[in-house]
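Morning!

This is the sequence you dropped in the shared folder:
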Amino acid sequence: MMAEQFSAWAVFWAFLRLGLTAFGGPVAHLAYFREEFVIRRRWLDERSYADVVALCQFLPGPASSQVGMALGMLRAGYRGALAAWLGFTLPSAALLILLAIGLNTWGEALASGALQGLKAAAVAVVAQAVWGMARQWCPDALRVIFMGLTASVVLLAPSAWVQIGCLLLAGLAGMWWLPTTQAENGPSVPSPVSTRAATAWLGLFATGLLGLPWLASSLSIPALQMADAFYRAGALVFGGGHVVLPLLQAELVPTGWVDEKVFLAGYGAAQAVPGPLFTFAAFLGASSLQGPTGWWGGGLALVAIFLPSFLLVAGALPFWVALRNHALARSALAGVNAAVVGLLLAAFFQPVWSSAITGLRELMVALMAWGALMYWRLPPWLVVLGCAAIGWAALSR
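The structure's back. Tokens below.
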């Protein structure tokens, strides 16, 4: 028990460090996780990390947060999953709740130049991630083709369902064309969740998805209605934080829960804080005009939107760990992993590059950041903070 508690604390502090410094959105977060837990800490090998990323790409909800929960769960069980989520989520959630409470006196949280510097840093971080993952997960011409086709299709038809379809087709193509291989030698990563417990977690997920709307409409309790709205947003959205925006806007603004100007201001502020974009829910809960508000509302919305992710990860992980040991499944996973690199490559161009590189100065900052990461081997958090400082001084308009 003490070993598990110590391990859970170690997970918490590792993810808290990332929660304070991981700017750049979900694609950049995957790069931070790989650097921290595969390369530096060696909690798991490249193949296991690739499989976890592939699993979370298939699940609805915030993929990077789900990867974090899965890493924490593999390291220290349920406590590790909770520790990873808390460490990675609390810094940005606390900042956004504070902003919601004191919006009239705070004004904009960051100057436009500092925000532009953070976006330029994200370009460098994601470029490094795509390069490293492509070298590892696309070692032959066929998987490079999988990567390129996936990126092209996703850029031409930007839809969460198109992304899922590309992953499925890449898995089928991998089963057909990629050779089956024996299991790779490396550290074993057994699932800490039994299949029986996993079935129960999936049952709880379905119960919440079906039961909360009925309870919310039957009892008309504002807190329950808030929990229902955010739970459904976390359970039904593929594609990450930006995709959840229209769903939350339709749930909260027309019904009078949140003012439209406050909604847009909070979404803009969420781009300027580290950690997962789904912590925007904490801002909305704290800004609520009905039911719980402030810290209570922010906490309720935060737990409700992330709860489906925990239930899905705990429910899917043991089946995934068992599946990956079959030869044919490994071929499918090899195809899926190549397609995941394609998704990251598409995200690098849109929205990471397109939103960050608006002129020569932004390009120069991104190139300096990329050089600092690739050649000087500076830690990503230091590069991110340096870009923010450069943006504050040089890019402010």
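Headline: The first helix runs from residue 2 to 21.

More detail when I'm at my desk.
O.
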